[in-house]
Every structure is written in C-alpha cells, then in structure tokens.
C-alpha cells in the first residue's frame, strides 16, 4: 500500500507552498526554509521550470519536497521523476489519483464540499486539501465538513496567514496547514532569504504547541 501524507510528513505541520519562477532560487530557498525550521515544502507547478525547482530543492536534502498545483497525470509523472515525495492538487481528478497510486506517492486532492470528499473517499483517499480554505468559510467550514467524516485528515490551504495558523492546527482533523506567506515570489524577487527564514521560524513557532 502507498504511504500516506502523514507518513511522508513525519510530524511536520507547516507546509510552505512555493511558486518559484527562477530555478536559481531553489537552493538558497531550500536553505532559508530549513534554517527557519521548515521540514517540508510544496513546489507548485505554476512555473515553467517547476521540475528543476523540485530537483534542486530535493537535492538540498534538508526538506521533504512535494509538488503542488498538479492538474494532469503527466505533471504528476514529471513531478515524481524530479523527486517529489508527495503530490497536491487544487481539485479531485481521478486520473491524477490513479497515476499517483501507480507511482507509489501520496496524493492530496483539493476538496471544497462533502460531495467531493465522498468522491475522494471512494477513490481510497483519506487525506485531502481543504481549498480554498478561507474563501469557503475557514474553520467553520472545516469543522462542519470534518464532523461526518471522522477518519479524514485535512490540509487546509488558501488564504491562511500566521495569525490563523494555530487555530487551524488545534483542530484534531487537521494534519498540516499549507500557505504561501513564508516564502512568496516577492521575497524571491528581492532575494530576501533572511525574511523567508524569519517568517518560517515564526510560523514553525506558532505551529508548535
Ligand atoms: C495553493 O496553491 O495551495 C495556494 O495558492 C496557497 O494559498 P495561499 O497563497 O493563499 O497561501
């Protein structure tokens, strides 16, 4: 059986979501995140060189690197070949799920409704991304969706910042929280790796009880 996301994350509860336009940033970014205490990261496939970014960040060795914004089976294949240890998608696509299962990596589909969650369960998934978490009602929606599905673990992502982090993580159904705020394209653009380490350290502190 495939490992689940919980196995791969091994207790990490902060999932920095990264969009990295220039692969030259990948290595210093990995270093900055690791220095701040992050243990994992999700590289979104929203940039042409995302595969190279995954490769370089995985080669750093200090982070568990996954791929995000995976929309097609082909992207999942390329991500895993580049070294992604898990796959995240904004929505639920049966072919992406099947491909990840064949590749032996955990896949975390995005869901926003009970119907989508039931489709995920039927496909054998028990960990989902609640997306876009804040826009669909935040904690209230998370609690309401978690109630009928006590075995499901959630990775809420979307619109979550440092002030909301601890509230989400206090929910028993929440495995980890995703967010782009610790390392944004604007940080990368100005080479602000110290800022990334600082925001990451602050988030790690907030996510540790
Ligand atoms: C994602 O792809 O998971 C989101 O874009 C991250 O959401 P955020 O930028 O609102 O943190």
TrEMBL record:
<comment type="similarity">
    <text>Belongs to the KHG/KDPG aldolase family.</text>
</comment>
<dbReference type="GO" id="GO:0008675">
    <property type="term" value="F:2-dehydro-3-deoxy-phosphogluconate aldolase activity"/>
</dbReference>
<dbReference type="InterPro" id="IPR013785">
    <property type="entry name" value="Aldolase_TIM"/>
</dbReference>
<comment type="subunit">
    <text>Homotrimer.</text>
</comment>
<dbReference type="Pfam" id="PF01081">
    <property type="entry name" value="Aldolase"/>
</dbReference>
<comment type="pathway">
    <text>Carbohydrate acid metabolism.</text>
</comment>
<protein>
    <submittedName>
        <fullName>Bifunctional 4-hydroxy-2-oxoglutarate aldolase/2-dehydro-3-deoxy-phosphogluconate aldolase</fullName>
        <ecNumber>4.1.2.14</ecNumber>
        <ecNumber>4.1.3.16</ecNumber>
    </submittedName>
</protein>
<dbReference type="InterPro" id="IPR031338">
    <property type="entry name" value="KDPG/KHG_AS_2"/>
</dbReference>
<dbReference type="InterPro" id="IPR000887">
    <property type="entry name" value="Aldlse_KDPG_KHG"/>
</dbReference>
<keyword id="KW-0456">Lyase</keyword>
<keyword id="KW-0119">Carbohydrate metabolism</keyword>
<dbReference type="GO" id="GO:0008700">
    <property type="term" value="F:(R,S)-4-hydroxy-2-oxoglutarate aldolase activity"/>
</dbReference>
């Amino acid at each position: 059986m495939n490992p689940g996301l919980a196995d791969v994350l091994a207790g990490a509860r902060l999932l920095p979501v990264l969009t990295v336009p220039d692969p030259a940033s990948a290595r210093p970014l990995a270093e900055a995140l690791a220095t701040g205490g992050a243990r994992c990261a999700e590289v979104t496939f929203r940039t042409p060189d995302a595969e190279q970014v995954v490769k370089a960040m995985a080669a750093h060795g200090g982070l568990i690197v996954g791929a995000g914004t995976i929309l097609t089976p082909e992207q999942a294949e390329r991500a895993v070949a580049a070294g992604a240890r898990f796959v995240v998608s904004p929505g639920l696509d049966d072919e992406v799920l099947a491909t990840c299962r064949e590749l032996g990596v955990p896949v975390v589909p995005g869901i926003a409704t009970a119907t989508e969650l039931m489709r995920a369960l039927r496909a054998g998934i028990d960990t989902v991304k609640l997306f876009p978490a804040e826009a669909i009602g935040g904690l209230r929606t998370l609690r309401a969706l978690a109630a009928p599905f006590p075995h499901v673990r959630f990775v809420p992502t979307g619109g979550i910042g440092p002030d909301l982090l601890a509230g989400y993580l206090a929910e028993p159904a929440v495995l980890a929280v995703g967010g782009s705020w610790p390392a944004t394209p604007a940080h990368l653009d100005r080479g602000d790796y110290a800022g990334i380490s600082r925001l990451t350290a602050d988030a790690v502190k907030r996510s540790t009880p």
